[in-house]
């Protein structure tokens, strides 16, 4: 079955950086569109960034543009989210999401906590 495991979250100060990783298993990674979502405390889950199955197309939420970069390494079955210039509004649980570009089958990771605080 599809399994996604995130890592890389933690506590950082405003202005610092983090890189999240999500390793996939149980599926053909190159067939799946990958996305990062986040859920701030008391708020709904929201899309942060996405990358096409071949890595050629990326998209970002307005809040992430210019600060975050999504990338993928098919050889490692891994998608990354490089987050720079973090601020307190970026505090959230970050989730990895995979959806097949062909069947629509999808899966969520368990989430990783990112806390930005001085």
Description of the molecule:
With 118 residues, the chain is an all-beta fold. 0% of the residues lie in helices and 53% in strands. It contains no helices and eleven strands. The protein has strands at 3-7, 10-12, 18-25, 32-39, 46-51, 58-60, 68-73, 78-83, 92-100, 106-108, 112-116. The strands form two sheets. Strands 2, 4, 5, 6, 9, 10 and 11 form a seven-stranded mixed β-sheet that branches. It has a four-stranded antiparallel β-sheet with strand order 1-3-8-7, with no helix packed on it. A hairpin with a 5-residue loop joins strand 9 (92-100) and strand 10 (106-108). It is globular. The mean pLDDT is 97.
Task: Say how many strands there are.
Answer: 11
Q: Which strand-content bin applies to the residues?
A: over 45%
Report mean pLDDT, rounded to a whole number: 97
What gross morphology would you assign? globular
User: Element order, helices and strands?
Assistant: EEEEEEEEEEE
Overall structural class, as computed from helix and strand content, comes to mainly beta
In DSSP terms (H or I, runs of 4 or more residues), the helix count works out at 0
Q: Which bin fits the share of residues in helices?
A: under 10%
Q: How many strands, which pairing sense, and closed or not: the largest β-sheet? A: 7 strands, mixed
Q: Which parts are unreliable, with pLDDT below 50 for 5 consecutive residues or more?
A: none
Whole-Å distance between the termini? 40 Å
């Amino acid at each position: 079955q599809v399994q996604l495991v995130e890592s890389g979250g933690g506590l950082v100060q405003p202005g610092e950086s983090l890189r999240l990783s999500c390793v996939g298993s149980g599926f053909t990674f190159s067939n799946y569109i990958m996305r990062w979502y986040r859920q701030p405390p008391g708020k709904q889950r929201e899309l942060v960034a996405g990358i096409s199955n071949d890595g050629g197309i990326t998209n970002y939420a307005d809040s992430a543009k210019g600060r975050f970069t999504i990338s993928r390494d098919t050889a490692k079955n891994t998608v990354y989210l490089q987050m720079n210039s973090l601020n307190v509004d970026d505090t959230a649980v970050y989730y990895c999401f995979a959806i097949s570009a062909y069947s629509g089958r999808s899966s969520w990771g368990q989430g990783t906590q990112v806390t930005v605080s001085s």
